[in-house]
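This entry is listed below:
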Amino acid sequence: MIDILVAHKAELIDAVLSLIVVASVVVAGTKTPDPSTWLGKVYKVVEWAALTFGRAKETGEPVKEKIEVKEVVGTTEKVD
């Protein structure tokens, strides 16, 4: 078994790299689905195959409300 792997290592490397490239194209070309759906779970596996995990890609979860910050109005003085 190991002899077969060693004899065909170039083909195996090509196959693995091709899988990564195809998965990367799919991840880059599609919108991230909601992670709680079955498609979201499949998409997570494709993201791992594309080596885009962690903070390398958006999560697909809805954006939470933004907090508004009030602007402070006043004067600034230069202190010597």
Notes: The chain has a mean pLDDT of 82. The two ends are 80 Å apart (CA to CA).
